[in-house]
Amino acid sequence: MLFKGLQPILYGGREVWPLVEGGKGVSATNHMSSGAWAAAGGIGTVSAVNADSYDPSGKIIPQIYRALTRRERHEELVQYAIDGAVEQVRRAYDLASGRGAININVLWEMGGAQRVLEGVLERTKGLVSGVTCGAGMPYKLSEIAAHHQVSYLPIISSARAFRALWKRAYSKAADWLSAVVYEDPWKAGGHNGLSNAEDPLRPEDPYPRVKALRETMREGGIPDSTPIVMAGNVWFLREWDNWIDNPELGSIAFQFGTRPLLTQESPIPGDWKARLMTLDDGDILLHRFSPTGFYSSAVRNPFLRHLEARSERQIAFSGEAAGDHQFQLDVGVKGKSFWVTRGDLMRAREWYGLGYTTGLKTPDNTLVFVTPEEMKIVRKDQADCMGCLSQCGFSSWADNDTNSTGRLADPRSFCIQKTLQDIAHGGDVEQNLMFAGHAAYRFKQDPFYSNGFVPSVKQLVDRILTGD
Length: 468
Fold this sequence. Notes:
The protein has helices spanning 31-39, 70-96, 113-123, 141-148, 159-168, 206-219, 270-276, 302-312, 342-353, 372-383, 416-424, 442-445, 457-465, and strands spanning 9-11, 14-16, 19-21, 43-47, 101-107, 130-134, 151-156, 180-183, 190-192, 228-231, 252-256, 284-287, 295-299, 314-316, 327-328, 339-340, 358-361, 366-370. By secondary structure, the chain is of the alpha/beta class.
């Protein structure tokens, strides 16, 4: 029985359930999950972020970078990304068998985003219904979508962000705007659009923020039939009862990112699925270690705790004696141009005695203390950079003429491409970044998953449609 008489929406020329599968980045959403989601009548989403390709025997082709320079490795990355996404879209479309719809998801701040999006759409004509895109301000999204005659669904976290996009670009391609995804910047998994004016420790109620978004859309003449897709912290539809058929909000659809991770078709490894079943409330951390500079939400496993501890072993320094910085640092550094406070000198000596014998400079005139082994890993990962982001704080790569951000590489961060590829392909779930939304603890509480039950995508969609 359908919850509250839930109605299909018209999308991509056919009726679909107002249920969208979240994109989820590197290989955490592929043709199996998105094709099955579409086959169940919803909008499946293929991640076009460094998606997997396959050899003639069907095995995943490892994304190995052979070029010597970052720029050349970046070209390899762009080609891997296009080939992989095209392969995933074709397979997802076949699995959907004419039902539902297939979208692709790209991150505007990924390296070569525009080239990847153009390359994928060029080779998948008639297969892709729309493009969801966030992580940055994707002004050119509407122009690209209109050129390829596909819908676009910008992912934003405030009415203000949408207003800026609409006024500058989207109003010129209004016919191809099929929905606006509101992603809760406090509760959604992965990278979040939390602004500097918002407190990461004080989540805001999404209702007034989405109401403000609808009012902004109305100002632009966008009809109420254009859905706002609520993303982040969505579990049971019955918990959103006052959003459905609400004239203040207009048409509402819902995006599920975390729940589809735990399905039979989900491509994430078994260890990752098993770990999701063990999470408690509070086990997801909203942090700022990502080399993108964005806040993001992930499981607070030993990988993240290690980064937290590294940043705690941090002291400020001055290039000359000034103010409280009257003591010359005598551990962890070479040279005499590091002046610190007396308290920080004592802390640095203590860390040195515990084996954290190397001080690495950050872009903020601080030093973080690490072990020699950690230093080697950091330096190797920075040297191996393949330009997976438009700008990377960790390696100082930028997708510009100089291929540099002009800032010092930041050892407090990490290589995001390396860890996401590793966890998606069987790496240690405790020693890699494990993105998840803040509602992931509900796997442990929801009776649907009792006794370790892992549903098919069809079973999950059918369950969601009942309100549970």
